[in-house]
Input
Amino acid sequence: MKKTVKDIDIKNKRVLMRVDFNVPMADGKVSDDKRIKAALPTIKYVLEQGASLILMSHLGRPKSASDSAFSLRAASEVLAALLETPVKMAPDCVGPEVEKLAQEMKPGDVLMLENTRFHAGEEKNDLDLAKQMAALGDVYVNDAFGSAHRAHSSTEGIARFLPAVSGFLMEQELEYLGRAVANPEHPYIAILGGAKISDKILVVETLLSKCDKLIIGGGMANTFLSAQGLNMQDSLVEAESLELAKTIMAKSSEKIILPVDAIIADKFDAEANTQIVDVDKIPAGWRMLDVGPKTLELYKTSLNGVKLVVWNGPVGVFEMPKFAEGTFALARMLADSGAITVIGGGDSASAVKKAGVAKKMTHVSTGGGASLEFLEGKELPGVAALLDK
Output
């Protein structure tokens, strides 16, 4: 267990807090403020405790510090509106001018630092940069789970120079994802989708050692079906992962649930012609882009009486309406399953949101890559750096 901001005294202190304000932008404005809202409970708690608050985050992948499209100013304006309190914008995330702004802060003040990735040292975990960041505050709070799998100056390096604890969002992520890794309730079903096995091989192996059933959908399923000798025709199949898929099936086939039918298309296109066929009857020139109705029935039966479900990755090309129904139907099943439902971030998080059932899930993770690495059983550098209770 890691210490949280509630475990330390922050009254009259400057709290330096790493948030995940890596938000989608359109025309210089924040197009989705979900991540900013997710940080509000910790932000409000810090201010209520009589501390001043300095926020830091990265945004996108800027090429240089003069790239104003990657400024956090727009995010700071959204935050100010949500908090109904002024948020001062710093010109940088380190340096004499920023230090002066930090030193002048009074309890209740909020200062937003500029994009940490405007410094090349951030992604190299440059300790000089981390030390300069640490000089701005008295304590460090990490509430950016989505960046916790990266050892950067603002996530790992900085914790070497200040007492470091987690925020509430980070605490919640560790609690729910931790359940799935450390001590899962049974029956426990894991669902993995998305395109590539190679990205998820470690997580497949870790989940198979813990879950009762593993549902595999999306492009990954094509490779497993192909490994069983089926002709997947023009479907996406990862040739270099076929042997791996064979090995996994040989070891754990009784645990793995693969699609039995599919919605196929004559091209990879939102307007393609479609038909529903069994997975062993895909005609030449066609490809599998979603799971079919028999497969959804199979999912429904499998989820009967389940206690814990962890889901990462869509089971079809859900960006295209014609191939989204499988993923949305699965989301609705989970919402009604009565199980503890933990949704790995990224595409699965946006799928449950688009299906209108995000509020019915026990926990929707804010970090796609971070949640995958956590489910692989890896210790995340940004988490390891925090103080233990």
The first strand starts at residue 14 and ends at 18. The mean pLDDT is 94. The chain has two domains: 5-169, 184-375.
